[in-house]
Amino acid sequence: MTRVRRVRVASTVLFCCLGAAATRAVAQAAPVPGDERSVRVYDLGKRGPQPTGPELVIRTPDDENAPSPATPGLAAMARLVRAFVQPPLRKDEQVQTLGERWLVLLGRAEQHAWLARFVAAAAATTQPIVGVHAEVFAAPEVLFQRDIAVSLQRDAGKLRDVTVLDEGEGTSKFLAALRGRTDVQRIVEQRLAARMLQEAELRTVGQTAYVRDFEVQVANGTVIADPVIDTVVDGFSLQAVAMPLDSGATGLALDLSVADLTRPIPTFTTNLGVGADITIQLPHVRRTGLEAAMELRPEQHAVLVLPALAGKRYFAIVTAAVAAAPDASSGRK
Amino acid sequence: MMRELPPFLQDLLDRGVDPLADAAARDWLLAHPECLPAFATLRADLAALGEMAPTAAVPTRVRRLRRSVPLGAFALALVALGLCAQWRTSAADRDAPSPLPRPDFAAPALVRAVRTSTSVAGTHGAFASVSSVGRATLLRREEFTTAAAPTRAVPWCVASVVREEVTQ
After folding, report:
1. pLDDT value at position B145?
2. Which of A59, B78, B128, B159 has a 20 to 30 Å separation from B64 between CA atoms?
3. Nearest CA in chain A to B133
4. Which residues pair with A140 in a beta bridge?
5. CB distance B105–A307 less than 8 Å?
6. B10 versus B154: which is more confidently predicted?
């Protein structure tokens, strides 16, 4: 076999392999014979304005090169789709976020049709405005277990992370008693408003600068140590995305997080070998979060209980109701 | 026994005021139950003296009744103090923390998905700020900065605290 012929054979084999790979790639986006599922990517567009503030996410210097997590609003939209897509997702069907504005659905044709309508509704400017009312409480863990958790346990079972309460005399008494407790701190009470399928956000945060490290430079026999300043963010954050459901209720995706910075910030003093000692600060931050998707009627209350944090329990009571009729003349919020 | 009653209680009796109608006297009697018999006897005697007529004209049956007056008054005082103590106990129960009333539960199936997370940072001493999405229509911002002069222990230390409150 001549050298030219060998090259032709190798080229043929290579093209065959590439062709097979291309065929497989196409097959992923179109229904495979015998499999009713297919993959499609949906563009939700720009989710709200440009980022404006810090997020209650713990990142170390090692994380700086790590990929960013999904945009909070996009993650909430994906959670809504997972919770309410019709027909419901089976175990071999998935909804995932991609980048900062895309959703990927591996599902059946009916689900693709549902998601196409969902995406179109998210882009519409005529969605009604939904009001989300949130009260956030904090109580010592012992008190919470003794006086609150026992009341929220349905059928004397384990306390659920999210409990939906119906309207009624019992709920009214529960809420009145809770709000009247002087030993339960109400840290936030706020009403958010946003259009359906757009994110509403409440944030009460504190930013504390601290000396993270020192950069040492030696120039002309002189040692210069420049402090590296970083920022610790703690506080409370709540994001909500709502969608109308065929049942008349509101589908609600909620993200709650609480971060607590230990004060005063512990310090560590060391010596660089020359000059005076240097002191860096070692902040300790505990963060707890809860993500949920639920169906909520206007008269119902959702009680969301975050995991205990340093002997303290945070919990929120959330309601959602359509606050205003669609306004076609207004632009997207 | 009579000397154990405090002067203010005797002043009330002297002025013709029923100590059981006085809150301070009731409190004192509750705190000193050993004085109750003496108090009841004195109270009954004073009440009897106020109504006393010539002994010779009083029939035997009436005299017996009058002898039973201290016991009756004592029993009444006990009942009154008992009721008072019970009222105070129930009031204290109302003020004490207790489990909240059970609310009306909706169907658990309304909650479609929940995920909780807890994390702790501090080993690396870092907490970097990253961007987020928000639509603030009202921003209240309070900021102050303190700078410590370089010392041997803390060569450089700048602390800046910012509190932001964002509402929709």
Report:
1. 43
2. B78
3. A51
4. A312
5. no
6. B10
